[in-house]
């Protein structure tokens, strides 16, 4: 593999890519620009006004809501699904709200870029965090509070969230992006998604990576990988990676009963994003394995950040 880059390459990430390519094929790869609201991109199925999720059609169900293929809190304004009815849109918004709650402190700091905004400079400033307004204000940071450091730890409250709904939100994104000619193979996953009481056979989780805020990714990306036919190793049939700004999430589709032989490896490889390939950044990435199996609401969680002076 020949790669030209302007930064030192992280060879570990390259090896992970090779492992991935030996066991999986790319099923879908989607890229979205941030806040490109003027150019909409509509995902369509062959039959118009028929819902991919509940299978109902107009006029039994309506299609008036704008259904974002990837949640709006990631910065997606342009990729819209036309095959999601208003009822399902409302049902899925419950899941997305929980995902947005979980990400609120991260988004407030790393920031989904608003138009013209650059990431905040943490330099000689005081921080006021507005969880409701979803922004952070820094003004005249008093050096005497932290005289001997050029950085400090900032601990923000995470709003309460339901872990399993984050999983459902991720899988719903995947089911939206899968091409119509393949979606039939995922009927079991669609059925699971539409039934709030259904559990997964294998406990849900995600691999959450936080990259340094100074280098946000240029696009929102979602890639789905499907296991090659020839693979006998007990690994998930479908993997999903979503990334935006400085964050990436890796998870796996619910495992069918027939495939659960008790030794499943849910994360056969840590799938590298474009940011992982840069060795300079890779050394500062934080990874967290998040349990998404619980339907009980998690309260009182904190998110910790290390803020460094730009000097
Ligand atoms: Zn529907």
Largest sheet: 6 strands, antiparallel
State the distance separating the first and last CA atoms.
Answer: 38 Å
- Strand ordering within the main sheet: 1-9-10-11-8-12
Shape, principal axes of CA atoms: globular
Cα-atom radius of gyration: 20 Å
- Strand percentage: 15-25%
Low-pLDDT sequence parts: 113-126, 128-135
Q: Which structural class matches the secondary elements?
A: alpha+beta
Number of helices: 6
Organism: Pontibacter qinzhouensis
Protein name: HNH endonuclease
Keywords: Endonuclease, Hydrolase, Nuclease
GO molecular function, one term: endonuclease activity
Q: What order do the helices and strands come in, and which of them pair?
A:
Blueprint: H1 11-23, E1 24-32, E2 41-43, E3 67-68, E4 79-81, H2 86-111, E5 127-130, E6 135-138, E7 151-157, H3 163-177, H4 180-183, H5 187-194, E8 205-210, E9 220-227, E10 238-244, E11 247-252, H6 279-282, E12 286-291, E13 302-308
Helix pairs in contact: 2-3
The structure holds zinc ion.
What does this structure look like?
The protein has 311 residues and is an alpha+beta fold. Helices cover 23% and strands 23% of the residues. It is built from six helices and 13 strands. The strands form four sheets. It has a six-stranded antiparallel beta sheet. It has a three-stranded mixed beta sheet with strand order 2-4-3, with no helix packed on it. Strands 5-6 form a two-stranded antiparallel ribbon. A hairpin with a 2-residue loop joins strand 10 (238-244) and strand 11 (247-252). The chain starts with 10 loop residues before the first helix and ends with a strand. It binds zinc ion. The site of zinc ion (ZN) has 8 residues, from helix 2.
């Amino acid at each position: 593999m020949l790669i030209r880059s302007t930064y030192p390459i992280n060879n570990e990430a390259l090896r992970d890519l090779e492992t991935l390519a030996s066991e999986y094929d790319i099923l879908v790869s989607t890229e979205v620009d941030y806040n490109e609201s003027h150019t909409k991109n509509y995902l369509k199925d062959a039959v118009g006004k028929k819902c991919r999720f509940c299978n109902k059609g107009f006029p039994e169900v309506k299609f008036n809501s704008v259904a974002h293929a990837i949640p709006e809190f990631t910065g997606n304004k342009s990729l819209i699904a036309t095959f999601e009815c208003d009822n399902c849109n409302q049902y899925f918004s419950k899941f997305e709200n929980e995902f947005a709650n979980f990400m609120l402190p991260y988004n407030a700091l790393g920031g989904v870029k608003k138009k013209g905004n650059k990431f905040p400079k943490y330099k000689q400033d005081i921080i006021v965090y507005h969880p409701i307004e979803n922004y952070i204000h820094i003004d005249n940071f008093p050096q005497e509070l932290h005289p001997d450091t050029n950085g400090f730890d900032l601990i923000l409250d995470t709003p309460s969230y339901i872990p399993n709904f984050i999983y459902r939100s991720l899988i719903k994104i995947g089911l939206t992006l899968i091409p119509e000619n393949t979606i039939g193979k995922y009927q079991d996953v669609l059925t699971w998604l539409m039934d709030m009481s259904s559990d997964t056979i294998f406990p849900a989780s995600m691999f959450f990576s936080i990259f340094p805020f100074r280098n946000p990714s240029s696009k929102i990306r979602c890639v789905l990988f499907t296991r090659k036919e020839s693979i006998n190793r007990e690994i998930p049939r479908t993997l999903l990676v979503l990334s935006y700004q400085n964050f990436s999430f890796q998870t796996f589709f619910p495992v069918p009963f027939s495939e659960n032989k008790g030794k499943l490896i849910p994360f056969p490889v840590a799938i590298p994003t474009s940011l992982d390939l840069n060795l300079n950044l890779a050394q500062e990435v934080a990874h967290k394995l998040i349990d998404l199996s619980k339907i009980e609401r998690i309260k009182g969680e904190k998110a910790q950040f290390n803020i460094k002076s730009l000097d």
